[in-house]
Design brief:
four-stranded antiparallel sheet, 38% helix, Aspartate Aminotransferase, domain 2, pyridoxal phosphate binding, 2 domains, Aspartate Aminotransferase, domain 1, pyridine nucleotide biosynthesis, 13 helices, seven-stranded mixed sheet, alpha/beta, PyrdxlP-dep_Trfase
Length: 416
């Protein structure tokens, strides 16, 4: 007996405890199936209203007096991220700069905290900016970047990490959720192995913050960075965040000595004296509008609850994989994500993935393309319905049956 997949999707949506959160977002094109929230989240309605108020009332009326409240925004957003999203303690997270800049700051601070150790470890499928920043840190400080092999579909393994560790390793830096496949790394086991080797552990949380539980406190993670414009829905170019475990903060000194990291900021002193708290990892003037957007997005995710968000993302992914098995595997697709232990996206491999992604856009479905030949389907739980998964993959099935994707050029003029 065949399963009525449309009816199944409707029943799953009716039973979804997070269904009401979709109404909290701006849905500009009702017919559009948006499966790229893991690149850029939708606009929350509360963020639109908050930014209008910030522009009209605070900037427009208060002018420079607005700094009476803006000065604490990086800490305020950091507290919501720490306690509501990241499983960290108060005073351990700040909103600041970009992911790349934060990675640089923490990587340098970590290497300096392990003098005499000459090796940084990462993996060959870590996100490009992570690999580039770490390569630059190693080159500038005459260190060695040791790159371990990770599987494109199943991610980095604890065995590969252990094999790379020795008493010359200062820092290990990996992604919690693999950007290509969505595979979730074992934070607890990997962090423990790194600590046993006497090194520090730095996690990139860009694809996990707001999507999956992040055990920073329970795993004893040293350092972490992440962005807010994906599953935290803070908008394009929104500021990133960084995490430093409380007992490490006074020990570490980051390399960009800006006035927001100064102990007595407004004394305008002649020499840099870093703040004794998490503030020492700040640099310059924080982005206020982006900061408000990040605060709104983090608050929305915290109110939904990370455990409930993760449960729904798992269910959405499981449903997508059921449809893949039934509809898409016969058309030459291969699953390029784990069947379990995934973040909030499912990746499919097909030799024509680029052309297929363009055909999907023409059919009002926005997916994401990633090399090599991968179609990434972002399933953002706060606004993606099971009906969206059904509709998006049904349109993909139609494209494959009609072979309409073949009329698109295989030459990639841009990567989204």
């Amino acid at each position: 007996m065949s399963v009525d997949r449309r009816t199944q999707a409707q029943r799953l949506d009716a039973a979804d405890p997070l269904a009401a959160f979709r109404d909290e977002f701006v849905i500009g094109e009702p017919d559009l199936v948006y499966l790229d929230g893991n690149s850029l989240g939708r606009l929350p309605r509360v963020t639109r209203d908050r930014l209008r108020a910030a522009v009209d009332e605070e900037w427009g009326v208060d002018l420079v007096r607005g700094w009476d409240r803006w000065i604490a925004l990086a800490r305020e957003a950091g507290e919501v991220l720490a306690t509501g999203v990241l499983g960290a303690d108060p005073g351990e997270v700040l909103l600041a700069d970009s992911t790349s800049v934060n990675l640089y700051k923490l990587a340098v601070a970590a290497c300096d905290a392990r003098p005499g150790r000459r090796v940084i470890v990462t993996d060959d499928d870590n996100f490009p900016t992570d690999r580039y920043v770490l390569e630059g840190v190693a080159a500038a400080r005459d260190l060695t970047l040791r790159v371990i092999r990770s599987d494109l579909d199943t991610g980095v393994s604890i065995a590969a990490v252990r094999e790379a560790l020795d008493d010359d390793v200062a820092l290990v830096s990996l992604s919690h959720v693999a950007y290509r496949s969505g595979a979730i790394a074992d934070v607890d086991a990997i962090t423990r192995a790194v600590h046993d080797a006497g090194a520090l552990m730095l996690w990139d949380l860009c694809h996990s913050a707001g999507a999956v539980p992040v055990p920073l406190r329970s795993a004893g993670v040293d350092l972490a960075v992440g962005c807010t414009y994906k599953h935290l829905n803070a908008g394009p170019g929104a500021p990133a965040f960084l995490y430093v475990r409380s007992d490490l903060q006074a020990e570490l000194r980051q390399p960009i000595w800006g006035w927001f990291g100064q102990r007595d900021q407004f004394a305008m002193g002649p020499a840099y004296d870093p703040a004794p708290s998490m503030d020492r990892f700040l640099v310059g003037t924080p982005p206020v509008l982006g900061g408000y957007a990040a605060l709104c997005g983090a608050t929305l995710s915290a109110s939904a609850g990370i455990d409930r968000i993760f449960a729904k993302s798992t269910a959405l992914g499981d449903f997508a994989i059921e449809l893949f098995d039934e509809w898409l595997a016969p058309h030459g697709f291969a699953l390029a994500s784990p069947r379990s232990g995934r973040g909030a996206h499912v990746t499919l491999h097909h030799h024509g993935a680029w052309q297929i992604s363009q055909a999907l856009r023409e059919a009002s479905v926005i997916p994401d393309y990633r090399t090599p030949d991968r179609l990434r389907l972002g399933l953002a739980p706060l606004y993606t319905r099971f009906a969206d998964v059904y509709e998006g993959l049904d349109r993909l099935r139609t494209i494959m049956e009609a072979e309409s994707w073949r009329r698109f050029s295989a030459n990639r003029s841009r990567v989204t």
